[in-house]
């Protein structure tokens, strides 16, 4: 059990379900601000100098800044990331998905503050980072894409609803583009890219056994549940019953039950018959 499993057991009930919907709804709000109240945009961007002066809402309000201001591009982005994000949440569970998104946001905020501190130490004056480039969740949403591609590399999607392409090739293109923008982009852009990729790397290195989230493993678990469900529901609410003697945990709370790996099918036995029963072929 890794640290994520321990955290999920302790705090999993506090996870926000359908987090992707809230994130994308924030983009719509940000787009409306840009077109209807452009002066308000300056009050929500991530600016460490102003946060240190008391404008603490900027720590979270910057997530409203959409990755693109073009309505058509934003529409395609919302449609794509709604499907990817909700699928990823169903695969990982709400808690792990929350950790992934919020850690990306946290890494970005920490990295921007670190950049602010470095520039202040070098030049001895406060430099408005928003003048260099706006920080948005563009690369955080891109990390959703990378995570999905890592779990479902062979899944095909319709690029712009026309061209079928596998996720692994799209992820490769994204990585190349991210490296290009990292090399040619400004300092703020580099910080955002590094923070999102760091989030992806740390999350997957800490979740060493990602195979259990893969489609084959998920299908195997679902198949096992379907097969075992009839054998797991008994009279009076019992969940275990020996296939030989018929006793359940309600008959004796000290009984232990195990499935036999040599029997064909899902047969459960108590400790008295686990090693003495005749295997079902």
TrEMBL record:
List the molecular function annotations (GO) for this entry.
Answer: peptidase activity
Q: Where in the cell is it found?
A: Membrane
GO BP term (any one):
proteolysis
Q: Give the matching Gene3D superfamilies.
A: Rhomboid-like
The reply on keyword Cytoplasm is no
Keyword check for Hydrolase: yes
Q: What kind of membrane protein is this, topologically?
A: Multi-pass membrane protein
What are the alphabetically sorted keywords of the record? Hydrolase, Membrane, Protease, Transmembrane, Transmembrane helix
Got a GO cellular component term for this one? membrane
- Indicate the transmembrane segments per the record: 21-46, 71-88, 100-123, 129-152
InterPro entries given in the database record = Rhomboid-like_sf
Q: Which protein is depicted? A: Rhomboid family intramembrane serine protease
Q: Which taxonomic lineage is given here? A: Bacteria, Bacillati, Bacillota, Clostridia, Lachnospirales
């Amino acid at each position: 059990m890794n640290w994520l499993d321990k955290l999920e057991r302790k705090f999993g009930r506090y996870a926000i379900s359908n987090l992707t919907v809230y994130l994308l709804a924030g983009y719509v709000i940000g787009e409306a601000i840009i077109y209807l109240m452009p002066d308000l945009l300056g009050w929500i961007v991530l600016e460490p100098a102003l946060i240190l002066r008391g404008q603490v809402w900027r720590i979270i309000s910057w997530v409203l800044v959409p990755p693109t201001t073009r309505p058509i591009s934003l529409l395609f982005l919302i449609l794509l990331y709604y499907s990817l994000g909700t699928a990823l949440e169903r695969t990982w569970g709400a808690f792990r998905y929350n950790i992934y998104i919020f850690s990306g946001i946290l890494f970005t905020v920490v990295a921007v503050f670190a950049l602010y501190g470095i520039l202040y130490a070098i030049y001895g004056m406060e430099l408005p980072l928003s003048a260099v480039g706006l920080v948005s969740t563009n690369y955080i949403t891109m990390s959703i894409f990378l995570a999905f591609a890592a779990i479902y590399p062979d899944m095909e999607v319709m690029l712009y609803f026309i061209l079928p392409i596998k996720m692994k090739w799209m992820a490769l293109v994204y990585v190349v583009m991210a490296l290009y923008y990292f090399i040619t982009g400004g300092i703020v852009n580099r910080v955002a890219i590094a923070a999102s990729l760091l989030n992806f790397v740390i999350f997957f290195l800490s979740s060493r056994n990602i195979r259990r989230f893969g489609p084959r493993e998920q299908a195997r678990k679902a198949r096992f549940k379907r097969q075992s469900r009839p054998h797991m529901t008994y009279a009076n609410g019992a969940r275990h019953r020996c296939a030989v003697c018929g006793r359940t945990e309600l008959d004796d709370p000290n009984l232990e039950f195990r499935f036999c790996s040599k029997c064909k099918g899902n047969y459960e036995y108590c400790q008295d018959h686990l090693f003495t029963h005749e295997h079902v072929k």
